[in-house]
Structures are given as C-alpha cells and as structure tokens.
Amino acid sequence: HADLCHKLVIPASAVFDTGKRQYVFVHEEELFVPKEIELRPKAGDDFVVQKGLRAGEQVVVSGNFLLDSESQLKAAVSGGPMKMGAP
User: Is pTM beyond 0.70 here?
Assistant: First the structure.
C-alpha cells in the first residue's frame, strides 16, 4: 500500500496490549525499556504506529517470551527497564 511507505510499521508480535494501552519494548544499551505507543488499525500482520515510537529505535520483535507475562509487563511498565535476558 503506497500510504505505508512513509509510515512506521511494526509486527503485531512486538506489541503488548493491556486492553487499555499498547506497549513495545525498545532495546537501549543492555536494557529493554517499555514505551507506550498508539497504533492505527492492524494492516495484515503489522501495525502502523500512530505515536510513541521513532524510526530507528530497536523494538523487541522476537523473543517476547522473555517478557511475555502480565506480571512482568506490569512490573516493567511501572518500574522502568528490564535487564536483557530477564525471565
């Protein structure tokens, strides 16, 4: 789609959806830092980012199993970054 060529697109697998908010984890140095984002409707297997993420930021796309529990997401969002490799 021609409109997507100038938009920031991320895979659906990178998004953590709490039901009220959506987050991605961005890799910064040795940490995974949660960032709240706003998304446009899903386009295939991807989302177009409306707000909250800049081009060039390294989003955790695979390996979300390391962060894939509601309690870890809540802890990360409320407490800040998580070290790489955190269970």
Answer: no
* DSSP, res 86: -
Residue 16 is which amino acid?
Answer: F
Q: Do 7 and 49 contact (CB within 8 A), yes or no?
A: yes
Q: Which amino acid is at 39?
A: L
Contacts 24+ apart (CB under 8 A), 50-56: 53/8, 53/10, 53/24, 53/26, 54/8, 55/8
Q: What is the CB-side half-sphere exposure of residue 7 using CA atoms within 13 A?
A: 16
- For the segment 29-86, what is each residue's pLDDT rounded down to a tens digit? 888 888 999 999 888 889 999 999 998 899 988 755 555 555 566 666 666 666 555 4
Strands (E), the chain: 9-11, 16-17, 22-28, 31-43, 46-51, 82-83
Assign 76 to helix, strand or coil: helix
